[in-house]
Design a protein that fits this description.
By secondary structure, the protein is an all-beta fold. 0% of the residues lie in helices and 48% in strands. Strand 4 and strand 5 form a beta hairpin.
Length: 122
């Protein structure tokens, strides 16, 4: 039911920072969880970070201490602050809306944005 648009990607040097934004077309207040995933060339899409409706967060081990996921319900936007970037962070980053297990029996559970490219290179 929700449309997602990512922005904020680009080229950054190792050690640099970027902030990704995911703008949702409708309220994210009641969505089960919002998350960021990434997919590097030749690799499977992987979870980077998520934030549940109650505010709890979870991160991939590879980004803990460097990335921070947050949300602004008033703006219907989820952010991913990316610090101390490494070349291995290079990937297309996707925003995801998860409507939760109760929705999955009748409707599509996950909705995805189009992705935004993050390239970390010197």
């Amino acid at each position: 039911q929700v449309q997602l648009v990512e922005s904020g990607g680009g080229l950054v040097q190792p050690g640099g920072s970027l902030r990704l934004s995911c703008a949702a077309s409708r309220s994210i207040f009641s969505i089960y969880a919002m998350g960021w995933y990434r997919q590097a060339p030749g690799k499977q899409r992987e979870l980077v970070a998520l934030i549940a409706s109650g505010g709890s967060t979870n991160y991939a081990d590879s980004v803990k201490g460097r990335f921070t996921i947050s949300r602004d319900n008033a703006k219907n936007t989820v952010y991913l602050q990316m610090n101390s970037l490494k070349p291995e962070d290079t990937a297309v980053y996707y925003c995801n809306a998860d409507y939760g297990p109760l929705i999955a029996t009748m409707k599509v559970r996950h909705y995805w944005g189009q992705g935004t490219q993050v390239t970390v290179s010197s």
